Each structure stands twice: as C-alpha cells, then as structure tokens.
Amino acid sequence: MGIVAGLDSSSESTRIVVCDTDTGAVIKQGYAPHPVGGSGDVDPQAWLMSLGEAAEGGLLEGVQAIGVSAQQHGLLALDAGGVLVRPALVGNDKRAQSAAADLTEALGGRTAWAQAVGAVPTASQPVAKLRWLTRNEPDAAHRVAELMQPHDWLVWQLLGRPVRRTTDRGTASSSGYWSAANGSWRPDLVQLALGHQVRLPEVIGPADAAGHTPEGLLISAGTGETMAAAFGLGVGVGDAVISLGASGSVFSVHHEALADPTGTILSYADATGMHLPVVHTLNAVRALRGTAELLGTDLEGLSALAMKSTPGSYGLVLLPYLEGERTPHLPHTAGTLTGLRRESMKPEHLARAAFEGMLCGLADALDVLRGRGVQVRRVFLLGPAADLQAVRAIAPAVLGAQVVVVQPADYAALGAARQAAWALGVSHGTHSPHEPPRWPAAASQVFEPGEDLPVGQSVRQQYVAVREQIHPGAFESGAFESGAGDQEAPGHGAAGGYEVGGGYEAGGYDGM
C-alpha cells in the first residue's frame, strides 16, 4: 500500500489528485489556475508556478510517485544549452494554419501524411508550429536544437533537468513527427518543417519510470491529457468516448494504428501500449447553443422543449455545420435546416432537431471508426451537456449503443495517478509491466437503446438522406482530398468539473 499523485497541467489550470495505490481512492486534491492566458505565447514557468500553488499545504507529503498529464500540441523549442529560444507555443494557437497547409502539400498531400504519421498537419500540431517558426522567426528557428511538448518539459523540470529527456507514446503521437504505427520518430519530417535536425526525447514505455527527483520521488512516463483521461476513465477495447463541447470528438481504444488516407482519423497512441484513433467534429454543443439563442432560452430550456416533440422532429432535419465541418470534410459549408412545413414550425420540433442533428453528426464520426473495424459496444458521454435530459433520452438509440454518463471528476489527473501507481508497482516488483493496476470504474449512469433502437435508426436514416442530398458523396474518400486547409477545432479546456483532456485536439471538450 502507498500513495501516488496525478498532476494534470491543462491549458487553464493545474489539478492534482493524491490516490491510494491499491484502491485508486482520492485522498487529497489540489487546484490552481495558470497565471497567464492559455493561448498564443506562454511562459512555461507559469505552469511550474501553478503546480507549486496546487501542491501547497503539504499536499504531496508521503507521496511515492507522481504521474504527469499535460495539454497536448504545445511546442517548446530549446537551444543547445537547454534554454528556450522563445516562449512556448500552445495547442490552441491558430497562427500556423497556412504553415500546416504548406506542409501537407510539401509531402505530397493528405494521404502521404496519413501514411507517414497517421495524421494530416493542422495548425495545432508541433510540426506545423515548426514551419511557422521557420517562416516568421528565422533567427529563433535557426537556434533550435531540441524539441519538447508541455508534458515532456514538466517531467524534465521535476527531475531536475537531467541529461536524459523522455516522453511517452501518447505525447509523441500528437507531434506530427512520430508514427504510432511504427513506434518511431520521423526526423525527416522535422527537417521538412524546420530545415535542420534536432534532438528529440526518448520515447519510453507506459509502465516505465522517467526517473527520480533529487529527493528520490519516482516520476512515471506521463502522457497527454487525452490519453490520461482515457486511462483514468478505464476505457478499453469496445468502448468509445464522445466529448461534448462546442466542438466534438470521438475516440476509442484499438489494438492497432489506423492509417486513414483521408486524414479523418487521427492515429494516436494511448497510455497503455494500445492505440487511440480520434475523429473530430467542429459542431456539437455550439449547435444547441445557437438554437437555444434563436428560441430565446438556455440549454436546459432547449432540452425541455425537445422532450415535447417526437423522434424525427416532425420531419425537421438540422445539419449542424455552423462552423463548416471537419467530419465530413466540408470546411466552407454552412448549416442546413430542411423539412419546414406548417405543422413542423414549432419551437419544440426545432429544439428536437438540434439535439438529433448534433447526435447524428457525432454518430457519423463514430461510424468512421466502426467502418475501420473499431468495436463499439458502449459509448461514454463527457461534458456538462451529457446531463441534459434530451441528450440522455436520444443518444442511445441514435448512437446505436449503450451510453454511459460518468460523474464529474478530474479524469486526466486520475489517469496520471494510475500510471504513477503502475510504474511504482513495476519498480517494486509487485505489478507486471504489461498489466496496469485495476482501479474501480468511474461512477456513472447507464442508458440503453432498448426498444427505441429502431426509432433511433430511422432518425439516422432521415438525417443521412438529407446529408447526401445537400452534400452528395461527402463521406467518399475523394471528398477529403480537396482543400489543403483544414479548419481547426477550437482549443479544448475544462469546465463544469470535468477534466478530460483539455487540449488535444483529442478527447476533451471546450466548453459550451
């Protein structure tokens, strides 16, 4: 028996949970906001200051090991002496959009990138930030000798800045220059983006230790927020996770990396040695929010209105592409409302159409994974919108699976703590490096499609018919090859008590 800590440094704050190694029970918690904004140029010392504040009051006394989860897609560029050449570039910085498009073309298009690293460059990824840096700050770019992401840098700082630099598969897979399929760095892609070679961290295994602090505290491998949240939730093969924020994301644990030539699936690695394919939508709760504003109500009011309607919304169908869409790849389109008749022009039917449209759009994303052989027996819904009655009532039948709504918790921090317990157990010889500690599942409510499944599938068919009429062939592979500039999902951050991987582009949610 012992105690371990999980530290999650998101784009907005630091959260720490201290847990029992055997049961996973949370003993103590700490929190501190970051003293600077979460976008643009960030001084990473702010993350250390926030960590210190979150750990005040002896929070870490008696802790034997720490796991670190951090926001993904940030870039820390260091010179040959280990000094930052400029402030950190964080994930939700959109300045590299044109750089991402240029890189896509430079390697030969979306398919070439998907085959190389399982993801097409986007503005958030470090590989695109490198190209932006080369273009806009050439003097700084010339001095870059080493690259890290936020999780790597924090681990390095906690260890006292040793000669050895480490990262994990999860963090590496979100860089744009590491292949989850091959388990190796692609220095040629760094060369393509930056113009010269640099030092990259050693990628260590999920149960490995990055090292020990000067005080002897074990630091585990750590990982990105998405991967830590999945580990904290305890999801496995057969589980999918849908994060309901302004935009949406769908991810699942899978036994192999998925090379998707369209670039729709981002092929990441998880925190256990498995893989984490991710699909994004640009429109989720923002479609609900916009409809609620149109009807002069809030989300709770919209949900209550929707429950007065019936499945199919009297023929109203909303394609919720309010910000363009990423899945399917329709970056320049707009939302569409069809089926207007005198009897359907009532607030409750529009409200229901908004919920059905949002969930059908997420079901489209889920079907992208299913179409590649990913098993989906149950779906975890994350984010405050999962508490809305209309979501709970409609989601199981439309998604065609058991739906699990978990209670709010700091799941990324819990995942980091679980990883720390794993590494500690391996170091003591009490755990296998191939089997993580079994902690209790997250407290949740479960909703079954039951007899409503055929009705839900009819709603899907109505939605798909409209989508194919308005955007024919949107999900055919060729439709994803046009247009180099993907629109980016807004940066994800935690709110409402859920900490589920704020910057991933994968797995968290970005508020409502």
Write structural notes for this entry:
Keywords: Carbohydrate metabolism, Kinase, Transferase, Xylose metabolism. It comes from Streptomyces rapamycinicus. This protein is α/β, with parallel strands linked by helices and 512 residues long. 32% of the residues lie in helices and 20% in strands. It has a domain at 3-227: Nucleotidyltransferase, domain 5. It contains 15 helices and 24 strands. Strands 1, 2, 3, 5, 13, 14 and 15 form a seven-stranded mixed β-sheet that branches. Strands 18-19-17-16-22-23-24 form a seven-stranded mixed β-sheet. The longest helix has 24 residues, at 347-370.
Q: What is the CATH T-level topology of the domain at 3-227?
A: Nucleotidyltransferase, domain 5
Intertermini distance: 40 Å
Query: CATH homologous superfamily of the domain at 3-227?
Result: ATPase, nucleotide binding domain
Q: What integer is the average pLDDT?
A: 91
Instruction: Give the DSSP E fraction (strand runs of 2 or more residues).
Output: 15-25%
Helix content, binned percent: 25-40%
Count of β-strands = 24
Q: Any idea what the CATH architecture of the domain at 3-227 is? A: 2-Layer Sandwich
Structural classification: alpha/beta
**What's the shape?**
globular
Tally of DSSP helical segments: 15
Largest sheet: 7 strands, mixed
Unreliably modeled segments:
478-512
Name the CATH class of the domain at 3-227.
Alpha Beta
Radius of gyration: 22 Å
EC number: 2.7.1.17
GO molecular function: D-xylulokinase activity
InterPro entries: ATPase_NBD, Carb_kinase_FGGY, Carb_kinase_FGGY_CS, FGGY_C, FGGY_Carb_Kinase, FGGY_N
Region (Disordered): 478-498
